[in-house]
Amino acid sequence: MRRILGIAAIAVALVAGCAKSSTTTTTATSAAPVSGPPINIGSANFTESIVLGSLYAQALKAKGYTVAEHSSMGSREVYFPALESGKINFFPEYIGSSLNFLTKQKDASKPDAKQTYDLLQPELKKVKLTALQMSDAADQDGVVANKETASKYNLKNISDLKPYASQLIYGGPPECPTRISCLKGLEQYYGLKFKSFKSLDTGGPVTVRALKSNAVQVGDLFTTDARIAANGFVVLKQDKQPIVGAENVAPIVSDSLVMAYGTKFTDLVNSISAKLTSDGLLQLNKAVDIDKEDAKTVAAAWLRQNGLI
Amino acid sequence: MKEPFIRWNWISGHLGEIGARTVQHLELTGIAVGVGFVIAMSLSILALRRRWTYSPITWFTGILYTIPSIALFALLVPITGLTILTAEIGLVSYTLLILIRNIVAGIDGVPAATRDAAVAMGYRPWRMFFEIELPLATPVIIAGLRIATVTTVGLVTLTALIGQGGYGYFINDGLRRFFNTPLFVGAALSVALAVALDVALVLVERALTPWRR
Amino acid sequence: MAAIVHWFTTAAHWHGPDGVPMRVLEHLELSGLAMVAATAAAIPAGILLGHTRRGGLFAISVVNIGRAIPSFAIVAVALPVSISLGLGLGFWPTFLAVFLLAVPPMFTNAYTAIGGVDPQIVDAARGMGLRERELLVGVELPLGAPVIMAAVRVAAVQVVATVPLAALVGWGGLGRFIIDGLAQYDMAQVFAGALLVAALAILTEVGFGLLEHVVLPPGVRRLSRAEAASTVV
Q1: Mind telling me how many Å the CA of A65 is from chain C's nearest CA?
Q2: Predicted TM-score of the model (pTM)
Q3: A144 vs A290: CA distance, rounded Å
Q4: Structure confidence by residue, pLDDT tens digits, B103-134
Q5: Which of B104, C1, C63, C198 is deepest in the core (most CB within 10 A)?
């Protein structure tokens, strides 16, 4: 008995001893080190954000900046205060949702990207933050029907749902019934009245599972989610009024960081953002969620492919 | 494409991270139980010296215990941020009730005859506490420490939801990506760590109470 | 603070499928079902094994191992299994998690309650000619009842406090307020949810306490309140 315990103890010690602190990484590599304050990059607790965080982090590190990654911090309510307080000073964000968050409104974001971006900047200024150039890559809420429902009713556009909505259950995040980009907009602009609503999560695994198991027939997922294609789900087109706000990716950085590093820094970040596309996001998500690869590896591969490291 | 039960190559490829998360998990647990023990000991001494405080103390720590852990963490985040402090405040709160109950029960369980003999031998209250009562109460106190430690290891998995790490990170990752391997690894290691610490505490108890062998 | 009072006084929060009464019912439904199942699984087994006074190490190990398994992990692992079995999302994984939470301590405490009855009393009873079944039902059970009931009470409170996990995997109950509130940064809702769960847990504690008072024979009850509190494992 004691011998087994002894071996177990040694085993735990060995594994712990192998611990490289690979949970937050703080090294400058490759190029000549750039002197200045450390860049603390955060990311939210979903795949795409984690990959984006890792992507920017590795690109900056390769150019000599001192970078520390704080990945998978939580939801916006939980990480944004850290951004405002300076604990992190770089975050790959989405223009629509951050606008809604800052203005404490559910529908401040507009379907037009430039409009949303222009509304966002002054809000960020108030808390000493800046949005750098936004990317073409966007990941917004999508009305998604599962395979059986889409084929049964031959659904391609949102208005195709009109005759059948009363027989279908809609699944989405808790605030969905009160948001224009969600159920409220579907009712107002498309005249859809669903049988009932199920509160799930924000485009996450619970919603995917609910759609897959047909607990709900239509749900709210994010458009670059690789699991849509993997499960044969169909994103329905906003054929009438676009209700979903624009959600282009834009890094939000602290003013102090911009002042410390200047245009060399912002140009570098913008050049990275310029290479991101919605399709690219989809591929990155697929590699992590479906092929089960590490976010770090996937991000590095993308950077290499795009000549950024 | 069916996800296999466990991808062994993931495990072998992530040993470094598994080790780092183990250290994190141990840290979070250790701080919680350590701080909890100090606070519990202080409150217990108070309760033993002033009996009437025992009820309100257990009542308050009991209330803390019934607040669901996810709620407690969620409520602390706006106040103390996404920090280890937030996690620790929550974790420490959950250890207090069991530790206080066991420390007090342990001290109370010291036979009156022993106490009388000590007094007769000239032991003053503090010396008696540290040299007689505490050692004799050790088994019951360690029983409480074992429960607190094992429970804390389980609760630490939830701290992954507020940006901390430990094995909960793997569980969460697996949940998010429908990836069995980190999910099972995180869950299994959680259990293993709890059992290992439990056994370690039993050994500590044996070492501290040689007269019981 | 004012926002919390406001939340509770908003009529809309008390009606419909998302209202407080509905969520409380859902919460009780899951807690109740799990407790009934766990009690049925744990108590008779613990009593019988305790009566034989064998397998002590096993009984203690059960509670230690049981406590080591984090409920969050069980819910997470059970979710895909539940779905593939066509059992839906959050109800059954959480049921399994709280069932496994409640069984070990109740089993072990039933064991120590019965097995720990003063051996002199057991001897005397056997000497008086009591058969095994009469001994168990007439002597050991009444004497062990306070500890057993205390264990059931403690388990029930823990179950009620753990059921909120179900909201993480798409089910309802009072955890819904906590998780949904968090998602919408509606801290008043989170607080309200936490308060409701704590209140329900306290009510459970008090309710079972009353039950003990009513069910236990007066002589036994007097002996054991304090003893039960400190011996419950």
Answers
A1: 34
A2: 0.79
A3: 19
A4: 988 888 888 888 899 889 988 888 888 888 88
A5: B104
